[in-house]
Amino acid sequence: MISIEPRRKVSRAARLLTPVIAALAALALAAIPLAFAGAPLGQAYTLMFTGVFGSVFSFTEMLTRATPLIFTGLAAAIAFRAKLWNIGAEGQLYLGAMAAVAVGTGAIGGPGWFLMGLVILAGAAAGALGMLGPAVLRTRFGADEVVTSLLLNFIILIFVQMMLEGPLKDPMGLGWPQSEPILDEAMLPRLMDRMRLHAGLLIALMAALVLHVLLARSSWGFRIRAVGENAAAARHAGIGVNRTLLGVALVSGALAGLAGVSEVAGLKGYLTADLSPGFGYAGIVVAMLAGLSPLGVVLAALFVASVFVGTDSMSRAMGVSSFLADLVVALSLISVLVGGFFTRYRLVWRGKGARA
Amino acid sequence: MMEFLDIFLNESFWTASLRIATPLIFGVLGALLCERAGVLNLGIEGIFVVGAMAGWMAVWMGASLWGGVLVAALAGAAFGLLHALLTVPLGLSQHVSGLGITLLATSAASFIYRTALPDVKSPPRITPFQPLDIPVLSDIPFLGPVLFQQTPLTWLALLMVALVWWVLARTPLGVAIRAVGDNPDAVAAQGLSVYALRIGAVMAGSALMALGGAFLTMSAFDAFFFGMVNGRGWISIALVIFASWQPGKALLGALLFGMFEALQVRLQTQAGALVPSQIFLMAPYVLSILALVFVARRADYPRALLKPWFKGQR
């Protein structure tokens, strides 16, 4: 019979290779839906590849798509490290975008650097408050934050629609429910001529680096890891578990809020109710692929963004549904879960008569 | 004020309440069955989508309505099996695996629908389940229309409440399922298979969830839309806690929820000019959160919920 045994030692190589193998496995599994859709496989995979690496433009498009994913991936990674299940990044992203639009469209005047800073801070603060709610409901009332943060996503999206038909609506928008555009001088600068890539990417990379250092080196990072690994032991050791959780909630929400800032003040310029095609949920996959490591989040976000951009381009050329991208991203999450299991455990076959 | 009271006196309000409650009854029962066996199933939202799509598509391709119901249940059970394999023998995080199942099931259903129907302007329709309209019984004043003009799937949902209650409370299988969610070591000591019980419960629960989805495309509407599940799965997860894992209370919770929804639709038509319609649309999610906060401290979670159990390890 087969039994499961924990491995004595998990090698570093195995841990680093697991997400790579999982990502490749997910891409390979995409052959099944591709075949189902009747697409020639070789051509489809080639188009997916050239859709990302075929030109400078397509490559910068991939980086542009990766930017919000780094933010939402970091939001999930830091929260999951403390076993705080923030599944509300999608809503927090919209809160951040709404705050950016509220302060960045002319209500407040000032020099460009001031407005830009204000937009970023307002977005981060709004996102942080968005996760503070579920965190307080957990620490004060014991209400499961998985469910509350998930349900808040729906509430916030409806709230966005309400605002876009009311106070935030652009009177010049020809009746479309969209906000006024953010002032040009408050927009995050573009990084390259004629490309959509913007400074949001630099902020995202900086956030990943700061988070990496904080988690690895600071006492705050130590407290987060302690609470995540064993809350009871952490409490016994004198760590304020609830305080740590609330701090993590604020940081996680702020990062998700920055994803919204970066999309609205870096890319789109104005807010609509379809700003995010599920960046908040994809961030969870990014975080898991990254093994909850902030630097890994950057690499995982590049992979997930490549899947989205490559599949989009292949879909347009071959008429395969672009839901394929979501399918591959979901498959990579399942693959990395299974892969993670086999780095920590092994299956042992015991024949009859063998001693346990 | 009289108008407000009139709403409750009108039988159409109660008919609508039961109709709106139906997918939630399936959803809460399904989640309850999984959690009673110790497995949180956050795949529920995606399994709703799969049930809605698979049931509808089977009928659209020529199956009978009940054939479609069966296809939906089997598709739900299949995704339940995947979740169970990941979380029971492999013992992976139930939170993350469940969210993965939701992403996978939603994208798979959407991909299959889009691939089968690439360019349709308006979603194709099927002939959905019709109200039963039982002679004599349907003519009873008030009760007749409320109970006997529902579609068969609403009756199936009520039947499932009774069945799940009976199995959990009155059969040895139910005792084993509850025990496996509270104290798997004791179950293993009895010589029963913890894995088999948990996997079976998750598959059955997931089949029920898929029926909640199937109700949407085969009774409430006659077509499949992206985003039509709209958080009903997550609301079910909140309602399970509200119902303290009891089938009877689950029915009550779903009915209260259906009543509230039916009420807000009617208030919207009366007070629509005064309040933005979105306030009403937010209401069910706000209500779910409030219900959760209200009962959270007293919630008596199955003791082994979320805890993996490995054979031969204590």
Q: How would you sum up this structure, described in words?
A:
The complex is a heterodimer of chains A (356) and B (314). Chain A has a single domain, classed as ABC transporter involved in vitamin B12 uptake, BtuC, CATH 1.10.3470. Chain A has 356 residues and is an all-alpha fold. The model of chain A has no long low-confidence stretch (mean pLDDT 93). Chain A starts with a strand and ends in a 7-residue tail after the last strand. Chain A has helices at residues 12-29, 31-36, 41-53, 56-81, 89-104, 112-141, 145-165, 200-217, 219-229, 231-236, 241-268, 279-289, 294-318, 323-344; strands at 2-6, 345-349. Chain B is mainly α and 314 residues long. Chain B has one domain (22-113, 147-296). Chain B has helices at 2-9, 11-36, 44-60, 65-87, 94-116, 143-148, 152-170, 172-182, 184-189, 194-220, 232-242, 247-271, 277-296. In chain B, helix 3 (44-60) packs across helix 10 and helix 3 packs across helix 11 (232-242). The termini of chain B are far apart. The mean pLDDT of chain B is 91. Chains A and B meet through helix 7, helix 12 and helix 14 of A and helix 5, helix 11 and helix 13 of B.
Features of this protein?
heterodimer, A: 356 residues, mainly alpha, ABC transporter involved in vitamin B12 uptake, BtuC, two-stranded antiparallel sheet, B: 314 residues, 13 helices, 0% strand, globular
What are the SSEs and their pairings?
The complex is a heterodimer of chains A (356) and B (314).
Chain A: E1 2-6, H1 12-29, H2 31-36, H3 41-53, H4 56-81, H5 89-104, H6 112-141, H7 145-165, H8 200-217, H9 219-229, H10 231-236, H11 241-268, H12 279-289, H13 294-318, H14 323-344, E2 345-349
Chain B: H1 2-9, H2 11-36, H3 44-60, H4 65-87, H5 94-116, H6 143-148, H7 152-170, H8 172-182, H9 184-189, H10 194-220, H11 232-242, H12 247-271, H13 277-296
Helix pairs in contact in B: 2-7, 2-10, 2-11, 2-12, 3-4, 3-5, 3-10, 3-11, 4-5, 4-10, 7-8, 7-12, 8-10, 11-12, 11-13, 12-13
